[in-house]
Structures are given as structure tokens and as C-alpha cells.
Amino acid sequence: MKFLFDFFPVILFFGAYKVFDIYIATGVAIAASIAQVGYLKLYKKKIEPMMWLSLIVIVVAGGATIILKNEMFIKWKPTILFGGMAIAIAIAQFWLKKNPIAFVFNNTIQAPAAVWRKLSLAWIVFLLLIAFLNIWFAYYTSTDTWVLFKTFGDMGLFFVFIVAQIFWLLPYLPDENAAPEPAPLNDAPGATSPVTEGKR
């Protein structure tokens, strides 16, 4: 459900574009993004930093598209967003020495540091690839084709990547059925060791 919620403005953008044009679709996407953040604020749910970034970019790029009647501004939006996300992950990983992917999972998965580093690198490469593909479609294909890629290409690639990430992390998922290890006898409250017991 979260996956669909994140792509909610994109889906509405596609529907509005098919019925009207890219300028009305852009306005719908801006309104949907504001409503998305407003919903999370209203119900006191956590708003991820990347959602704030997405809102800022869609308002600025979308607003420029509508005011200046130039669709290239909105076409640059995914490239700016995904490129910015890749840069943010790289800064956190290599400069601040903090792994943002591990932070997202909130320590629910106990994977080695090397695994998290590889996952961060995978996200950086993936986001840069999506950013490049978006701008390529924006400049070298029709607006209809770009809208199709933005809606279904992005969504499909993200879905495949996230599924691959889940399989990558499967060996490190906590085993809920595993019985907890018994505490050593000499650590248990009131317990005695065999040596002490023999001296009684």
C-alpha cells in the first residue's frame, strides 16, 4: 500500500494527462503532492525527508511549467529528484559515515556493515540510472512516450529493484520462530552453578 501511496501523484498525473493536457496534469500532480503531505501531517504520521524534497521540486518545477507554459520544467523534475536522492545517500554514506538504508529499516534487520554499504551503492547507481533515463526520454521521445515512462517505467523499475532488495536482505531477516537462547545458569537470578550446588 505504501508503494501505491508514494506513487499517488504520478498516477493522478497520468490520468489527468490522458483526459486533458500536461499543464492541467501538472497542476493535478502539485495538488496531489500537497494533499499527500497534508494527509500525513493531519494524521501525525512520519513524513520522510525525500517526500519533502519531492514536494518542493514538484511545486517549483510544476509551477514554472504552468506559468511559463514550458513542459521541460516538469520533465526535469524526476531527474532532479532522483539525482538529489542519490547525492544525499552518497553524502550520508561516504562523508557522514552513516548508512541511510540501514536507518530506514530502523535496525530491524541485523545485516553486516558491508551488506548495507553495497545496498547504498546499489541505490545510488539505480537512482542515477532512473535520473538519466528520465532525461533521455524527455529530450529524445515524444511527451506521450515520456509520460508513459514516467508513470509505468519508473514504477516498474522501482518495483523490480525493491523486490530484488528484499531477496538480498532475506538471509538477515529475524527468525520469529526461533526460540530464545537460554541464559547461562550463573547469570539467571537465584541460579547456582553445578560447582556451588556440589558444595552444599
Keywords for this entry:
200 residues; mainly alpha; 9 helices; disordered C terminus
Structural class of the helix and strand makeup?
Answer: mainly alpha
**Number of helices, counting only DSSP H or I runs of 4 residues or more:** 9
User: What integer value in Å does the Rg equal?
Assistant: 24 Å
For the biggest sheet, the summary is: none
Low-confidence stretches: 178-200
Query: N-to-C terminal Cα separation, in Å?
Result: 62 Å
Share of β-strand residues: under 5%
Strand tally: 0
Helix content range: over 70%
Helix and strand run: HHHHHHHHH
How many structural units, i.e. domains? 1
User: pLDDT average, as an integer?
Assistant: 84
C-alpha geometry: globular
What does this structure look like?
The protein is an all-alpha fold and 200 residues long. The protein has one domain. It has nine helices and no strands. The chain is globular. Mean pLDDT is 84; it is low at 178-200.
Short description:
This protein has nine helices and no strands. It is mainly α.
Set out the fold topology:
Layout: H1 2-6, H2 8-19, H3 22-42, H4 49-68, H5 72-95, H6 100-104, H7 113-140, H8 143-169, H9 194-198
